[in-house]
Amino acid sequence: MTLPLLGTAVTLTTYPEIRDWICGPGRAIEIQDFCGIGVFERDHSDMISAWHGLLDGHTGPRSIHGPFFGLDIASPDTEVRAIVQKRMMQGLDVAEALGADLMVIHSPFTHWHQLNRANYPEVYPSLMSCSADCLAPVLARAADTGCTLVLENCDDTDPFARVDLVREIGHGNLKVSIDTGHADICHGRYDAPHVVDFVAAAAGYLGHVHLQDVDGYADRHWHPGEGRIAWGPVFAAFAALEDSPRLTLEVRRDLHRLPETVSRLEALGLAC
C-alpha cells in the first residue's frame, strides 16, 4: 500500500527551516500569511514578493488559507456579505499570484445552529441560501482561476451540515475540508461525533484535511501523537474513501520537528 504524502501549513518565517524536507519529495504546502487580521486592509504585495522568492524549487501542490476572522459567509446582512465577498476575492488574487489551486475558508455552522434547528426552523435554510449567495461570485472567479474552495469545520457539531451546503450549491470548485482538531474539540466539549464520522460524512466531497492533535478542550494545534486523537482509525477512515483529499499538517509550534513526527507516522504505517 502506498502511504499518503503529507503536506504542511507554513508561513514566511517557518517555511525556510523545513524547505528541503518539503521540496525533496514534493510535499504540498498551505501558505498561511494571508489569513491574519487586517492583512487585506493594507498593502500585502511585499509578502507576495517574498513568497515568490522562496517558492523556487517547490514542485508540490500549493494552497492558501483564506481570510476568515469576522467573515461569516452566511451573514443575513447583504452589506456584510459584500465585505466577505471582497475579502474572498482578495484571497483568490493571492492564490492566483502564488500558483495555489486551493483556498481554505471557514464554515458558518455552529453548535447553536445544531441545537436550535427545530426551535428556529427558518435559520438553517437562511444559512444555506445566504452562503450560496455570498459564494456565487467567488466560485465563479475561482473557476476562472482554477482554484477550489474548501469549507473547513470550526464549531461544527453536525458533520453533515457542510456536506449539505456543498451538495446544495453544487459547484465543481467547492468541496469540504476537515480539521481533525476542531472535530475532536467538538467531540469532547459538545459530544459531537468522532473525527472518523466527520470523515465518513464527507465521502464524495472531501478535498482537504488539516491534521492537528488536541486534548479535547482547546484548539492546540499539537503535532499528531501529542494529544488524544487516535490516528490509526483516522487514517483508516481516509483510506476507505474514494476521494484523495490533500492532507496538510497544521501545527502551531516547532515545525522543525515535523520530519520526526512524520517518521513516527510512517513507522506506524499511516503516512509519509
Automatic annotation (TrEMBL):
Keywords: Isomerase
Alphabetized InterPro entries for the sequence: IolE/XylAMocC-like, Xyl_isomerase-like_sf, Xyl_isomerase-like_TIM-brl
Annotated Xylose isomerase-like TIM barrel domain residues: 46-255
UniProt GO MF annotations: isomerase activity
Family annotation (Pfam families): AP_endonuc_2
Keyword Hydrolase: no
Keyword presence, Isomerase: yes
Protein name as catalogued: Sugar phosphate isomerase
Native organism: Marivita lacus
Lineage, highest ranks first: Bacteria, Pseudomonadati, Pseudomonadota, Alphaproteobacteria, Rhodobacterales
